[in-house]
Structure formats: C-alpha cells, structure tokens
Amino acid sequence: MIEDPFLRKLERAVQLSEDERYALQSLTFNRRTLPARHDIATGDVTDRVYLVMSGFACRYKTLPSGNRRIVSFVLPGDLCYMHDAGAFGRDLRVGALTPCSVVDLSRSKLVELIGLHPGISRAIWWVTLRELSRAREWIVNDTRPADRRLAHLLCELLVCLQVIQQADEHGFEFPVTQVDVADALGISHVHINRVLQSLRSSGLVAWSSQHVTIPDVDGLRAYAEFDPAYLCFEGFGP
C-alpha cells in the first residue's frame, strides 16, 4: 500500500520502480506546516516547486476589485509551479485554505531525477497533461448553471480524494468555507447558500460539520454532466 499521496497519484499513470519511489520520497522528508489563510507561494520566481502533502489549498488570483477568484483546488499529492514559464508563469498565488503540510522541492533536483529515471519523467509528464485537462474542464464548468457547477465540483473532489484514500464511496471531509467554494464557482457569497440549499432539497448533497455526503453519486454525476475521464486517473492507457 502506498501511503504517500504524491506517489499514490503518480502510480495511477506509471508503475514506478523501487529506485524511482525512493528517489522521489527522498525529496519529501523536510516538510513545513502552514496555518489556514496563509500563502504557500506568492508567485515569486524561485528554484522551488511546492508539493502539498496534507490539507486543502487553492490556486487563486486577486482581481483589481479586490475579489478573489479560485481557479483550482490543490489537494494532497498535488504539485504547484512545476511547469511555470518564469515570471510570466507565476501570476497565480497558492494559498492554504486549511492547515497544510507542504514540501518545498528543489526544481533542479527534480529535473535531475526526471533526466535519470524514465518512470519519473513519464509520471511528471502525466501530471502536466492532467492539469491542462482539468483546467479546460473548469473553463467548461463555468458555462453551467451555478447549482450544476457546484455539483460538478463536488463530483471532482470525490474522485480525486478517493484516489488518495481520503474519501469513501459517498463522501469526504471538506473543512473549507462556503466563501471559498463561492470564489471557486465565481458566484457571490450570498448565492452559494441558495445553490447549496437547492442541491440539499433535491436530496443530492448533504454538507454539514465539515463533511460532504453524496447519497446518490450516480444521480449527482448525471445532474452535473460529470465524466471523470478528464481527470486522467486511468493513466496513459495501454
């Protein structure tokens, strides 16, 4: 059983050798713990790649109006700033929504491992393709009505957290605020409550005490028009 959420995700794409697992794990020993509402990375250009090992974080941008727009959630096992393009690739900040454990990886060391190990190279390439696919789906999801948008987001979180064994068949711990979810959906903080009440009254979702329960997963997926293929957890295929 792979306990490391980072390795658990990579193993969905590539069967890593023992040497490759050890090489990756050697990068993740030194962790720092950040409190909620603290930036993990501010967009400064450094030789660092950030790996979230526990907690919920997000990629976000603060608009000129002062409003925040969350463009993706960052879950345990996710890399941030792996494939930036210098100053122009770091326009987004990464912030902790809950207390998070984070590893600051050396980019040069990770690149060195990619050059030495074909399995790691293939796995990191999969990470890139997966993030691009996920970003496209978030754009498409913005065209849906707000209640279906929320339903789609919860379906995505369920699948992603199941992969790292942090969700069961019908739900997961979700210690973020409704304000955070509203900023991810691009709706007002007042509207999110009405949207959630609509899903709750339809029997599709129950969200209480920082736990999301989805009584009818297939029903919610159908309502959200959710197809998990874009998450690429089947790897590269044959």
Automatic annotation (TrEMBL):
Record PROSITE patterns: HTH_CRP_2
One of the protein's GO biological processes: regulation of DNA-templated transcription
Residue stretches making up the HTH crp-type domain: 144-218
Keywords for the protein's UniProt record, in alphabetical order: DNA-binding, Transcription, Transcription regulation
InterPro entries reported for this sequence: cNMP-bd_dom, cNMP-bd_dom_sf, HTH_CRP, RmlC-like_jellyroll, WH-like_DNA-bd_sf, WH_DNA-bd_sf
Signal peptide bounds: none
Cited Pfam families: cNMP_binding (PF00027), HTH_Crp_2 (PF13545)
Coiled-coil residue windows: none
Domain of life of the native organism: Bacteria
Stated name of the protein: Crp/Fnr family transcriptional regulator
